[in-house]
Design a protein that fits this description.
By secondary structure, this protein is mainly α. It contains eight helices and two strands. It has a two-stranded antiparallel sheet with strand order 1-2.
Amino acid sequence: MPRLADIADEYAFLDPDDRYRLLIDLGRQLEPMPAALKTEATLVRGCSASVWIYPTRVPDGRLHFLADSNAAITKGLVALVLVAVQDRMPDDIVGTDVTAQLAPFDLQRALSSNRTQGLPNMIALIRETAARMTA
């Protein structure tokens, strides 16, 4: 996945239709999430589309997330969130203001409220997972 700043730079120059395509392309870049991990336990509540996020811990303690959605743009949104936190130490994730990092994308204005309503829940789930791992 590219860096968040690089994605934001590209996103800023695109028209709305191309922004949708960029998000969809980001979603396609997510590593595949096995169907067996798409359970009620990994389902993000409050999203209009189904979104699953599954944390794993790599041997050095960093968190790696698998994620998927049944909607292409929502899958792109979760991919955007993961770019901000993927493969980082749990305490780094807890200390990261993901919402502020996503501010350049102005997602609330660029996308319908239906598409963005679950974004805070995705971020909260990731932060809560990281907080549990630091304890």
